[in-house]
Structure formats: structure tokens, C-alpha cells
Amino acid sequence: MRALTWQAPDRLSVETVPDPAIVNPKDVILKVIMSSVCGSDLHLLGGYVPTMQPGDIIGHEFLGEVVETGSAVSALAKGDRVIAISIIGCGECAYCRQNDFHCCDNSNPNTPQTELAYGYTCAGIFGYSHAFGGYAGSHATYVRVPYAEVNLFKVPEGITNEQAVFVSDAAPTGFFGADQANIQRGDTVAVWGCGGVGQMAIRSAYLLGAERVIAIDRCTDRLALAERKAHAIPLNYETTDVHEALLELTGGRGPDRCIECVGMEAHGTGIEYAYDKVKQQLRLHTERGEALRQAIYSCRKGGTLSVLGVYGGLLDKFPMGAIVNKALTLRSGQQAGQRYAGQLFQYILADLLDPSYLLTHPMSLEEGPEGYRLFKHKEQNCLRAVFMP
What we know:
By secondary structure, this protein is of the alpha/beta class. It contains 14 helices and 18 strands. The strands form 4 sheets. Strands 3, 5, 6, 9, 10, 17 and 18 form a 7-stranded mixed beta sheet that branches. A 6-stranded parallel beta sheet has the order 13-12-11-14-15-16, sandwiched between helices. It has a 3-stranded antiparallel beta sheet with strand order 2-1-4, with no helix packed on it. Helix 6 (170-180) crosses helix 7 (196-207). The longest helix is centred in the middle third of the chain and has 12 residues, at 196-207. The chain is globular.
């Protein structure tokens, strides 16, 4: 089969590789219909996520057709159109039983790396380095899905491929961020980052009762989409003092809930951004925390900060004093999409959510390296490139 592989930082290649096979009775093999790029993939490209090996297949947001099932799979059949949740749950550990699939104890067979970095084993993730399980990703003709009955969801009739593919990752990640922000009816919510996850976090905040959502980014095309499609108030941090603007919009209090959708490669304009970038490039710390700091400083006293951006390790100048003295609640995590997939499909069927506008660049798998180049450099207003093997 053909697959988009990581070869070295900032070097991808489409190669012919062996087809996947059933390894465990609970496995399913999918023929990939659509597989989307994601902002967290850029951390792999930049070399910020260790344990990547040349030839690793990347990609974790995908829609496919079942072509083979393991002997223990009964709820899925050949021909089913399904989405896969990018964070893998086993369905049986204590965390999965309480719907915290993103904290699964069993889906990552390579435990030493994340135990060393974080103190505990983290869940497996498709196409996201050997530290997170070493699973082959979805930018390929076929992909093996472990614990298939836990991680695959049939797509209802009436939902298009373009809508369904984002229920794999972007939509549940955005919804998870809004859900854990504890939004109350009438709240003002600020969202940092207007990529695919940020767009979905904005829509989800409204679905959960927010009165106003403020979108913060520097890309004018993404801000325009956030305003037109997600009904947010746009703020361009390159031309606006974000903190002052948020205070003005909220009567001097600050947003009730803040959702950070940027992560370890945040862009910024001030001296702290320059400091972060130099230290990151020298590998003296792993994160650029401009957006995270801004969200902490701007959130109102007693408010909630929900962190969706991917962070890998250590960050300097983390404003712990602001968190403590403003009595902020800080919540974070990878998405628990198994918890939300059915609900998101219902929102789509009811015309309350339409993620399809995230797909700006449909492409063939052979165009994968170019798709990632456009996505990384935000050229041609590329919000999401989606490959169709």
C-alpha cells in the first residue's frame, strides 16, 4: 500500500509499505476514505516530539470503510463507514470504564517513555511516535485499528464524508475543551487559536450555552471563518492588545472561560515570545507558551482555563502566581472522543454543527508532503488538507 511517512524533521515522503494485518482478535482493518492533517502533527514535523523513526506513518484523524475484522469483533462488519477516535481506549481499564478514554492504561504498549516524561503511562495515539504506542497512522491506503469496538463509530446516513471525518478528532477535541471549561449559560468565552480545533471549540461553546465567544488569532482568513461560520468576535493579536481588548469587551472582568487551542509552537509578538523561541530552538525547554500565558492573565478571577494545545514537556515563565491568586481552575487533556461521537453526530443531523468547512484542500495521498507544506506555512488559506487515498 502507499503511505505518507516521516523521514526526518521537516521531511515527509510517500512510500510503498506493507499492508497492515490483524494482530489481535479485537482489531479491524479499514480502507481509508479520508485522512486529515492536524496542528499537532506539525510538532512531529518540527522534531519536537521524540521517538519518531524514519518510515513511521503519520496521521490520526480519519474516516474509513471496514474491510476486515478480528474474530472477537461482532458490532462491526465489512462495508461499514466509520470514523476512528484518534486517542485509543481499551474500554476495560478503570479510566475507560468512567469514560476517561484519553487516560487509558492499556492502549499504549510502550510505557517507559511516557512514564519517564510524565510519571504515568499515557494512552496510545495513532501515528504519533513510539512514545505513544508506535501505532501506524492513517495517511495510508489501509490502517489497523485496535480495540475496534471502542474506538470506531458508524457514521449515520445523512452525514457526508466531509462532515464525518472531523468527528474523528477536531470536533470532539473542540467539544471536550468547551465541556471541561464548565461553561454556564450567558458566559463570555475566549478561544486562542482559530485552526480546526479552535473553530470547533467556538461552535461547541455556543452549543453549551455561551452568550459570546471571542476568537484570537493572527491569520485573517481564519479569523474571518471564525466570525462567519462560528459566529465569534474576532481579535487579531498582531494589531490588538488582546488583554486590554478582552477587558473592554467584558466590562473590566475578563472572560469567564478561556480555551487554549494553540500548544507548544505558539506564535507571539513580545519579548517573551522571542525568549521562548530561542530556548526552544536550543532545546533548553520544549514549549512556546505565549498563548497559554495570555489566557491565564486574561481569564477573570474564579474563572476556568481549558488547555487543548499539545504540550510535550517543560515551559519557563509559567505564571503560577496568577493561577493561585486569581483562584483559576485549570483543566487539560487529550480528547475523550468516544464520550462525544454520538452526540456530535446528532448535532450534525440537527444542523447545529457542520464541521465540513474545515476542509479547504482536498488532495490525493501522493500530494501529502505538499499538503503539509501548505498547512504548516498557512499558504492558500489552508485550514485543513484532507488526503483521499
